[in-house]
Amino acid sequence: MSTHSSRFAARLMVAPSVALLLIWMIVPLVMTIYYSFRLYRLVSPDRTGWTGFTNYTWFFKSSDFWLAMGNTLALVGGVLAITVVLGIAIALLIDQPVKGQGVLRILVIAPFFVMPPVAASILENLFMHPQNGLFAAVSIYFGSDPILYMQDYPMWSVIGIVSWEWLPFATLILLTSLQSMSSEQLEAAEMDGASALSRFRYIILPHMMRAITVVILIQTIFLLGIFGEIFTTTQGGPGSASTTLPYLIFKQAIVAKDIGRAAAGGIIAVVLANIVAIFLMRGIGKHLDA
Amino acid sequence: MGKIVLNRVNKSFGDVAVIPGIDLEIENGEFVVFVGPSGCGKSTLLRLIAGLEDTSSGRIEIDGKDATTLPPAKRGLAMVFQSYALYPHMSVKKNIGFPLKMAGMDAAEAEKRIANAARILNLTNYLDRRPGQLSGGQRQRVAIGRAIVREPAAFLFDEPLSNLDAALRVSMRQEITELHQTLKTTMIYVTHDQVEAMTMADKIVVLNAGNIEQVGSPLELYHRPANLFVAGFIGSPKMNLIDGAEAMKHNATTIGIRPEHLDVRADGPWQGIVGLAEHLGSDTFLKVTVEGLGTLTVRATGEVSLRHGDRIGLSPQLERLHRFGADGKALA
């Protein structure tokens, strides 16, 4: 069905949606680029004129920016490591035949349905709170002082909260991959003398590689833009200790009311996301091929 | 050495006894085929021997030692699965070498064994390929290669040819038989195809509903089926089974006569009408409807110019007649 005319007809018919999507993407991007080179401060009457690369260089000179970069990468890397490792472990566990398997699986997946700011508030106030939190109660029970999570370990706390939210997603994807594992392959490996650990290392893990890749790619996209969890808990603090790139941009736009600078930050974030994407596709994208 | 002895082996899933209790001896170096209709428990029996299923009761001895509770890896057996169960992310070489790697064999010795297995199975040029890049027959050979490098006490085959097309099945059948003659290792082979059983086996074990119906060499089963089930199962086309008045004449409840032991003769005692004639060139299969006996299959040698609707006479070779009693067992 791939004659010259049918191809032409196909292109003609998808053209409107492609054009719409292109405009949808290109207009905000071009506007952001435009603003990033403008002097545009909401609190200043002087909001006209080009400023060249000043908005960009401000970021590169600011120590907060480099801290935010480090925090962003720590958040993405930390959450990925936790969700993939624990996700594999939980998927292996709930793949076992147990009574009440259906209910168990729904319970495991449940956190994913909680909205990010709500999830963050729950963890902050019910678990990590130094007076009311469950963790504080445990610390006191064992006779030690409660840990001030938001104050002393702000970045770790955010990573913990985001991991809690994303673990179900990772588990779900990894579980489906585990269920497609051929039982004959495992039996063959058993006959071949592979121990449970070797079977995991040489048979199950390679089989799950594609699912792990999917988890890493999808989560990276979402984790680069994490905002709500930081906003409702640490507010990027104390100081700038838990400020990530999106949160830094937010601070420039809404707190400092400097639209031009925020736009420049946005463009930097887009470039960063693309660099990460290229590295990911180079590094693990080959697992997506059959 | 691979002598395998099953002593009252039983397998039950809940209340259902899939295998009520089997006694069987498999001698070292024998090629034994488990054959039976689907659901007869032949695969379960193989998996019990392999150790992939736990025996509910009874005893399995391999090589004179009790192996009933040993894990599969410790039994010294190698298995070839119906789906081949190759590891898709490993090259052919790594697939074949996997059991050696798991056994912790040193690389040089493993390399030698892999090369040797590849040579026997004509896989030398494919060692670097992935299973996905191989044809069905090649995959089958890789699975066999993975089994032979371990030099097991016995090979277990679980319907290994059922995923292959007819032509390839015939040639793989010969390859496996030749392999057995080269290695002289015990082989247990499960199939539902009685042609495979007849052509390959030293000893056939006919299973039905978890019970052994008869054990014997292919020709023993062909010439002296112990009961109606074996009589109907072994042989192609199937034996004609006749009961009623005609059987009574021979002091039996049922009589059986193989299609090749019915002669077409105008003055034969059984007069009938040809329903269907299948001309294969070397043979002609006739479906003949005989009044009072039902439809009989006749195998006539060579080309026979009989057609639908022709009236013919059939004469059974009386010394080839099988007689069965009311309990379905053969009468002496």
Automatic annotation (TrEMBL), chain A:
Keywords: Cell membrane, Membrane, Transmembrane, Transmembrane helix, Transport. It holds the Pfam family BPD_transp_1. CDD domains: TM_PBP2. GO terms for biological process: transmembrane transport. The chain crosses the membrane at residues 12-37, 65-94, 106-123, 153-175, 208-228, 262-281. Coiled coil: none annotated. It is a multi-pass membrane protein. One of its GO terms (cellular component) is plasma membrane. It is found in: Cell membrane. PANTHER family: BLR7065 PROTEIN, INTEGRAL MEMBRANE SUGAR TRANSPORT PROTEIN. Belongs to the binding-protein-dependent transport system permease family. This is Sugar ABC transporter permease. It comes from Paragemmobacter straminiformis. The lineage of its organism: Bacteria, Pseudomonadati, Pseudomonadota, Alphaproteobacteria, Rhodobacterales.
From TrEMBL, chain B:
The keyword Transmembrane helix does not apply. CDD domains: ABC_MalK_N (cd03301). Keywords: ATP-binding, Nucleotide-binding, Transport. One of its GO terms (cellular component) is ATP-binding cassette (ABC) transporter complex, substrate-binding subunit-containing. It comes from the Bacteria. Residues 4-234 form the ABC transporter domain. The keyword Transport applies. GO terms for molecular function: ABC-type maltose transporter activity; ATP binding; ATP hydrolysis activity. Pfam families: ABC_tran (PF00005), TOBE_2 (PF08402). InterPro entries: AAA+_ATPase, ABC_transporter-like_ATP-bd, ABC_transporter-like_CS, ABC_transpr_MalK-like, ABC_transpr_MalK/UgpC-like, Mo/tungstate-bd_C_term_dom, NA-bd_OB-fold, P-loop_NTPase. Belongs to the ABC transporter superfamily. This is ABC transporter ATP-binding protein.
